[in-house]
Amino acid sequence: MTATVPDSDDRIIRESGIDARIALIVQPVLRAIGFRLVRVHLTGQNGLTLQIMAEREDGTMTVEDCEEVSRAVSPALDVDDPIEKAYHLEVSSPGIDRPLVRKSDFATWTGHLVKVETSVLVADRKRFKGKIAESDADGVLIERDKAAYGEEPTVRVPYDAIAEARLILTDDLIRDALS
Fold it and tell me: What's the mean pLDDT in 162-169?
């Protein structure tokens, strides 16, 4: 079976391998109960742990929401059984220092500090740290935290080059996340 991405998946950062198969199973279930998938990650720590990170459309996620998501996705995972061994299911919110997986995430968190890793070289680098200055349909402009001598103070990173992006916890982020 080839994993295909649903049309309604607007994430720019997606899973591969077994994580992608699991995402295909849980995404329609999440959508049906009013949640968006942020990330799926299967790890081998303390046995196998399947982490499903989700949120409501407005970006919120309560403990009760985590319970609801867990109860909804468990039967779907039991039926399709993509994981051959026993595993622990962990449902969580993205948290304050969340991964950025959609174009809208970059727009929402403009002005905040971010770490970005790319899959290809961008301006002779694959890792960037700085503030999100702006985002558009094609990419994000990052004001570098500490530009090396000879480097431009900003760098434009195309969305299709981003392998991973995450907010960095700061006092400003905490204040804005709680407002």
Answer: 97
Query: Within 10 Å of residue 87's Cβ, how many Cβ atoms?
Result: 15
CATH 2.30.30.180 occupies which residues in the chain? 103-178
Domain 103-178 -> CATH class = mainly beta
Helix axes 63-80, 17-32, angle to 10 degrees: 120
Cβ proximity of 4 and 22 under 8 Å: no
User: Is the sign of the CA dihedral 146, 152, 158, 161 positive or negative?
Assistant: negative
pLDDT tens-digit map of 53-80: 999 999 999 999 999 999 999 999 999 9
Q: What is the CATH architecture assignment of 17-92? A: 2-Layer Sandwich (3.30)
List Cβ<8 Å contacts ≥24 apart for 87-91: 87/42, 87/47, 87/48, 87/49, 87/50, 88/46, 88/47, 88/48, 88/49, 88/50, 89/50, 89/52, 90/49, 90/50, 90/51, 90/52, 91/51, 91/52, 91/53, 91/54, 91/66, 91/67
Residue entry with tokens 């994580």: 19
- The predicted model gives 171-176 an average pLDDT of 92
Which two tokens mark 50?
């399947």
Secondary structure letter of residue 12 according to DSSP: S
